[in-house]
Amino acid sequence: MAEHDALPLVVLTEQFAKLPGIGMKSAARLAYHVMSMDAEEVEEFAQALLNAKRTVHYCRICENLTDQELCPVCDDPTRDHTTICVVEQPKDIAAFERTGEFHGVYHVLHGLISPLRGVLPDDLRIRSLVARVQQGQVQEVIMATNPTVEGDATAAYIAQLLTPLGVKVTRLAFGLPVGGMLEYADEVTLYKALENRNIM
Amino acid sequence: MAEHDALPLVVLTEQFAKLPGIGMKSAARLAYHVMSMDAEEVEEFAQALLNAKRTVHYCRICENLTDQELCPVCDDPTRDHTTICVVEQPKDIAAFERTGEFHGVYHVLHGLISPLRGVLPDDLRIRSLVARVQQGQVQEVIMATNPTVEGDATAAYIAQLLTPLGVKVTRLAFGLPVGGMLEYADEVTLYKALENRNIM
Q1: Which of A41, A162, A173, B96 gives A37 a disulfide partner, CB atoms 3.0 to 4.6 angstroms apart?
Q2: Contact status, residue B147 vs residue B177, Cβ threshold 8 Å
Q3: Which domains does chain B have, with CATH numbers?
């Protein structure tokens, strides 16, 4: 995009370039693509943006994104509401749902504690998690944050808050990925796999 | 995105996934990102989409995208209006403008002839190019389509139409890219470089 380009195209390019993972070149390509779309298609796209932002909010219980008062999981009486799986982001829930093996409910933190990036515990949805546990029905909280420094630290911080409330706090197991090859595993993963070895 | 996701988010994801080069996973990431944007930012994005589509159209002379009646190049009396550089897409103009060495005007075809993809000469902006040449002031038309089968075929087709009108039709030179290495050049490029060799 340069001075010979139409200003509204430059503005649209800059908007695309604000999105994560989209540089100025890709943004320009997307803006040109919008020019080749039908006017109705562009209206639909703009409407989808506004509609998602206006109608989607956090579930009153688990903080997942929903356009209802409660998300479908919290609203489902057949789920096990005594087991909460704590995840960093809404998209992590999709991974668990795909396994079809988790029948409990979720809690979305919307981030990880990271003093370096200025993210403190109060910036995350931790208070609502503590409040859920304080209600007394929850029996187990599974910390399912990523196995990174920040994920581990956040899990440890929350475990420290919840354990005194008399609830069982667990952490996902770490080890070799199924189908993975020993020779390609990094040292930490291999160490975890050794440490957490099971009797056959 | 799955059944536990809010429907407006699924709709937005599908809209992003329609864009070129964006798969379902990236689209979901972008949709989640929109949720984390301020409401005003989302409004600006939607407005930029609608505004670009509503106000940007084809220049009456050269078919480039513009929000004015004429694009800045066609509207510039200091440009050489007797030399037309014919390109496939609006973004090709940016490449020539960056060289700072072309002082003529442009004509944008908005595609290349490709019978296999159902793109026939009448689907491109060829008639308006012929009409420009027929007005009699144009002295040279430089075919600057890409050096591909379709780019060459389109250039040849247009040259056939324009030559009888008494205008000089030229094609960009093909050869080794400046700074390129002989050993990495493909055979066709090397053959072109040999064929078009110049006296030193």
Answers
A1: A41
A2: no
A3: 7-55 (1.10.8.420), 79-171 (3.40.1360.10)
